[in-house]
Amino acid sequence: MNTYKIYFSLVFLILLLASCNSRWDEYYNTNTTVSETESNEDVKTFFKNTPEFSKFYQEIESCGLDVELEKDQQMTIWVVDNEGMDNSDIIPNDTVRIKYHMNYLPFLYSDLKSGLRIPSLNGVYLQINHQGGDVYVNKSKVVHSYKLKNAVVHVIDRLLKSKVNMFDYIVNLPDDYSMFRDSIIKNNIMLFDKVNSTPIGVDITGNTVYDSVFYVYNPLFEKAQFNSEFKQFTLFLPNNETLQDCFEKLTNQYKAMGKVVTANDSSLAMTWIKEAAFYNGELTSFGDLDIKSSFGRIWRPTIQKIDINSLEELSNGLMYKISDVKIPTNYILTRIKSLVHYYEYLTEEQQKQYYTFMNTTKISIFMDSATPKPEILPNYYILDLTGDEDSNEFWVEFPPLERYTDANNNYKSRVMTVPVGEYDLYMGFHSQGHPYINVYFDGNTDGESSSAPENLKLIGSNLSIVNSNPWNFDRVNETTNDLYGDKVVKWDGLGGLVGTVKVEGEGMSSFRIRVAYYKGDSKRLRIYHWCLKPSSSNY
Fold this sequence. Notes:
- The chain has about 550 residues and is an alpha+beta fold.
- Helix content is about 20%, strand content about 35%.
- The protein has 13 helices and 30 strands.
- A hairpin with a 5-residue loop joins strand 4 (about 115-120) and strand 5.
């Protein structure tokens, strides 16, 4: 029995040794293309005995970093030979760059797993990647490794270039990027770091005096901590020319709608640009699918333009320059609204050109004094139409109009264009005693001519306008009360929802609306306003 026990014990021991040997080989020989040398020398002796690294060590000494090698501390050092130093562009006494080649804790060759990030002595991280059978630190290939008494030395084929932290990169951008740079750093706040500040005494009031350490806080860090070396981000960076082009397009867009870009609009647009610039993780491929930023902003690659060839690796992520940027319609425009009575500011010729009336016996502008805020809107004005009692067909068709003031300070109106895309159409009426109606929409027109019948689409059918909620003027849906908590009145809302419409074309286009009598006791159409609210898909 004892013989069997001895036999099985020997078998187990052999298997255990084989397993250990296998793991040892795996530990030291994960890649047969890179030779590894083990030595009992300390790292300073190693450099003394290997003259092919003398120029690298001279740089360590000139930077005063040789004292790091004498500490009771295991280290990893990334070195190049003398030829590599000659071929590098390093300047004398470049302490920051040399510190980038040193870090505490020993990382053996077998520890260099793809994706590993190692902090260097200057606080910036090194990135380990595998390509085929080779191991790279950043873009330098590891060609040999030494396991020493108090350090691991990895020989690399070219000197590392110190990567820059994303936040520091932005702070140090040249003036060609000042619009983006300054919009980021203007909110920087210097905060006292008590934990890392050293007490050096007490003042006369008994308060502790510190050798103070401060750090930078920026509100953007709450959602995208792009100053951290422990996280990875992707930055889409616009220069001033790209941003100026963006704001010029926005100005022209507003002008076509009879609007002016206000300071608040510009601030809102710049907020979107900043919040659409940062993305969690490293983005390396782009298709046609939307990308969501760290702030939840949608970047649509089919509209926004990324310069893929401008890729730059930072210590905590990637940076791409962008050549074209557009503020999404559904972000910058909450609504587009106009009053139908602007018909009265057209010339008689324009009225015939732009408006089409079917079986209408009377056209007038009706004034209703029941207004919520006389100091802002003295009266409601409604396009008031009476239909032919002997006809079953009665309607009006019109384009969007914007009102403006001419050189003589007189009101005029003209056809408006709006950004193409999908909207929710709202309308308001003088609802009292109003008949049921149908509403049609043609989003494929220049607005100036009558719609081709085949383009008209029925959007809202059998609408009971007599119901004051939601059809009476603009007293419901996103009113001043809803938006701002104005408890006095409800006014300037969207009105009643007719349905979803689409304005087609390129860039800016126009449309036509037809309001048709459907049924009711009186043949009157009393139309107050229309309003387009961009849908979530209207980019």
